[in-house]
What we know:
This protein has 8 helices and 9 strands. By secondary structure, it is an alpha/beta fold. Helix 2 (about 35-45) links the parallel strand 2 (about 25-30) and strand 3 (about 50-55).
Amino acid sequence: MKPIALITGATSGIGEATARILAPKYRLIITGRRSERLDQVKNELDTEVITLNFDVRDREAVNQAIESLPAEWQEIDVLINNAGNAHGLAPIQDGSVDDWDAMIDINVKGLLYVSKAIIPGMVSRKKGHIINIGSIAGIEAYPNGNVYNASKFGVNAISQGMRLDLNPHNIKVSEIKPGLVQTEFSEVRFKGDKEKADKVYQGFDALQAVDIAETIEFILSRPAHVNIADMLVFPSAQASATMVNKKS
Ligand code: NDP
Ligand code: 8X3
């Protein structure tokens, strides 16, 4: 029987690419708010798949969804905390409080709600691997990034804390911190302004979602005694949060 991996935010970008890469080796639980996208991804995957449709901000919905899993799907081996986004890019004095709420509620609290629903089972089985998707934005603030930065600094702290607390329970915790990945991320950040979003990735070869999916696959494929605890992955043209060698 294949092990079970649960991927949050599998309706696009990194999460969707990860579902495709892991399908040969895992049974998958894929989650997100856009149910038609979840169904489409499910239909294209050559493995057993369960879709769970919830907003990670809704604690009750998270718990109900995880509890609704059939008995044979309860023993989750791998949790990939990927769901998240940036909302807005503005100086702190001009930022939208609604955007701030969204980023803290989704990227930090949502990750915690999903983890809280799954970790106790891993602890009781003394087995599991959690991969949190952080960001370069979680180790380096950049102009106008402020609250998105805070949310990803939060993911960094939570990953370190999880690793310490779950160490006695034989649970691996890894964090991947990508640089610029060309997904729907910037479209969400700029509230559907595709032209503005596309500009972010112009003039250099950005990472693609599959690059991070392959990194996840590599981390999961290490032997039991190896944990890749922390990984920063840039496109070759990127050297820091703010330095990208773009062709003009
Ligand atoms: P996408 O916008 O393509 O994917 C985001 C995913 O998160 C979607 O599947 C979306 O599903 C899900 N999601 C967002 N909000 C919620 C919510 N409230 N409840 C449930 N699911 C939600 O972007 P990426 O693939 O790039 O982003 C994935 C992760 O990677 C994020 O955590 C992001 O911060 C991180 N990251 C991205 C980088 C980049 O440059 N792209 C770089 C570094 C990190 P749905 O809308 O269907 O709910
Ligand atoms: C996403 C990467 O640099 O747009 O976390 O914040 S960045």
